[in-house]
Amino acid sequence: MKHEHAKQLMIGLPGTGKTTFIAALWNIVESGEIPSSLKLAFLHGNRDYLNAIRNKWLNCKPLERTVIGSEKTVSMLLEDSETGITTEIVIPDLSGESYNVQWKYRKWTKEYSDLANEASGALLFVHPRELRDSIKIDPAISSLLSEFDQEDNCPSDSVEPDQIKPFDLDNVPTQVKLVELLQFLTYSNSFHARFKIAIIISAWDCVAEENLCPRDWISRHLPLLDQYLTSNEALFSTRFLGVSAQGGDLKQDSDRLRRMLKPSERVLIVDESNQGHDVTEPIKWLLRA
Amino acid sequence: MSENLRPCCDQEGCTVHNDGKCLEGFEDLNQCPHCQFVEVEDEVSVEEEINIANSEEELEFNLPDGLALNAASARSITRDKPTHLILIAGDEESGKTTLLASLYECFLVGPFGQYSFAGSQSLVGFEARCYLSRIHSGRSFPETERTKPGASDTLLHLRVFDKSKNKQTDLLFSDLPGEIFRLAKDSTEECKKLKILHRCDRFVLLLDCERLIDFENRHETFANGVGIIRSCLDSEMLRGDVIIDVLFTKWDSVELQTDNKDEFLAYFGHIRENMEQKFGLRVGALRFFNVAARPKTSALNFAYGIKDFFSLWVEEKSIQKPIAHKFKFEDINALNLRHFDRFIFSRNL
Question: Which of A112, A164, A169 sits opposite B139 (nearest CB)?
Fold first, then answer.
């Protein structure tokens, strides 16, 4: 049996579902409930973190924010029944805040630099409810306000200077931050072309009613990111997936979810043409040539 | 309510998740039918962030700051790939920065014409320039912060991709303060300090239509524009093959005119004719465009007119005109040339 070693990055701003994904992933590979999934070859190393987050996931409890300093590097020995290859995958469960720090302070730690240099691919997470957009001031509304001000004999721009908020890097649109995080990877001397990235749209159940495939969802809601990836196919090989790692809204659906016979079947994962429960699908794609 | 719950709204334009203000005006957010509360992580305090950033962990390297570039930092782009340098010139408040901000904003919603966004080393620089035109700034009217004099980092980088040609092109836009061009117009010595003029592939002069339709200011505005170009050419800082684009900015102010519109349009025609006469033969090309980068009326689309010249900015570098094109046939005869020389000139016409 062939044994390989692969490191994958998990990139995502705070609250984008990285830890929940790992919890669901651990449950599926360990339980073997989904026939097509990667399977745990055998247990090794310390699993208390994985078991702790998996148990919360099983109980339909929300997972707490991963705080910088409490991050864990997750390691699983997985067998791909299709290829016969066993791969040790190493996934650092980095806090979303660490990516915010990269964006704002423009620094990589040595640890992250080593990870980025060694990674053979990445999962990039976005959450539909955590998107920050850039909304332009509408000139038509401004004109209307101006007319009202004239009627009231007010100055045309009645915003006091102290009401204007200073430019803050936190308020930059999500898609701009994500493009920059990917650009950072390309600046590294160790970056290799056709770097594989699986774009994961978390909480896919929230947006299923839009009737868009994951690629089209990105194109509609994160067009700058979509253009960047399309224009740089020489740099990145990309796949788009929608994932509901919880399987529903924990406030409304937890009762239904807990009653499912096979918890792994809570998970919903969709791509261009398929839908299923195998949350190892993006990992398989990253590992395979 | 749990401290870990944050309001969230699906209505476009509602900023409740950011500043707690409901678009519908509800003070009690529980009353708003569009508002939901979601579990989120706690906000990290500024102090915590700074501690994180300055932690004792060894830093591998600093990443590019994403701001405007200077000549040295731009070399990392110009060294690796052919790059088009586009110099944006004009009086103070003629719309130089707004033009670039609006161009960037177009890419935030999708491809611009045939071009897709392929990257930028100045994302933070562009974002800072767009900020005052967005709702998050707290302003009622869109604005652009004036470019501060004295800044050395003035180059904004944009990489675009043309799918039909499978080709990426790097563009560097200079975003210089208007004061610099005022000084350059008035002094050859000041003009010669603008080394970037030698290198630019395109010189874009902005003429502010709000001033051109103001009878009190229009002639001065036009004279200033002519003065800038003339100073750059006479000081030999602009190459003879440079392309000059003259943009009539804030064109929405013309479109909104009900009285005297024909007279204004005639004046613009006079400007074109006059500049063509003065500079047409001295440069690679001289072109004129109407632009409203951020129109105040919804009658014109956002970034009105930019598409008309953007593809030229991407596709064209400088134009080397054959020497004979600088002369009319009558002039050739007047030069008292030998027959052979006249033959060479006439072939090139």
Answer: A164
